[in-house]
Amino acid sequence: SFDRKTGSVKPVAILPNKINGQYIIEGLAAGFLFSLGGAGFIMLDMALERSGKSTAQTSNRSLLLLFGVIGVMVSLHVIQLFMRVKIPGYLRD
Predict the structure, then answer these.
(1) How far apart are CA 50 and CA 64, in angstroms?
(2) What CA–CA distances, in Å, run from 81 to 2, 26, 64, 86, 89?
(3) What's the pLDDT score for residue 50?
(4) What pTM, to 2 d.p., does this model score?
(5) Which residues contact 37 (CB under 8 A, 6 or more apart)?
(6) pLDDT for 54
(7) What are phi and psi of 85, to 5 degrees?
(8) pLDDT at position 91, please?
(9) Which residue in 77, 22, 67 sits closest to 44, CA to CA?
(10) Per-residue pLDDT, 68
(11) Among 14, 25, 26, 13, which Cα is nearest to 88's?
């Protein structure tokens, strides 16, 4: 898109107002964020596992829990931000 005042091209990473269309970098970023959220849920599951054979040592449980929560929360909020750019008024009253 062009800046009306200067006439220069300004870069756009997310194709706004079009649900059926997207730029390549937008698709890659969204895929990475969904993978980050999935990895966060896997880390949470590993940290909270209560079975006899634990995959995480006691010292690593807090790190897995911390990184799992951070991964899920970051992916959730950035994907919501993407949706607000893509669909103005998304989840707004």
Answers:
(1) 14
(2) 23, 12, 26, 9, 11
(3) 67
(4) 0.76
(5) 71, 72, 75, 76, 79
(6) 60
(7) -75, -40
(8) 72
(9) 67
(10) 94
(11) 14
Which residues lie below 8 Å from residue 79, measured CB to CB, with a gap of 6+?
A: 30, 33, 34, 37
From first to last of its 93 residues, the chain has per-residue pLDDT tens of 677 888 888 877 777 777 788 888 888 999 999 999 999 999 999 888 766 566 566 778 888 899 999 999 999 999 998 888 888 877 776
Phi, psi angle pair for 20, to nearest 5°: -85, -10
> Which of 33, 61, 66 has its CA nearest to residue 46?
61
Amino acid at residue number 90: Y
Secondary structure of the chain in HEC code, one letter for each residue: CECCCCCCECCCCCCCCCCCCCCHHHHHHHHHHHHHHHHHHHHHHHHCCCCCCCCCCHHHHHHHHHHHHHHHHHHHHHHHHHHHHHCCCCCCC
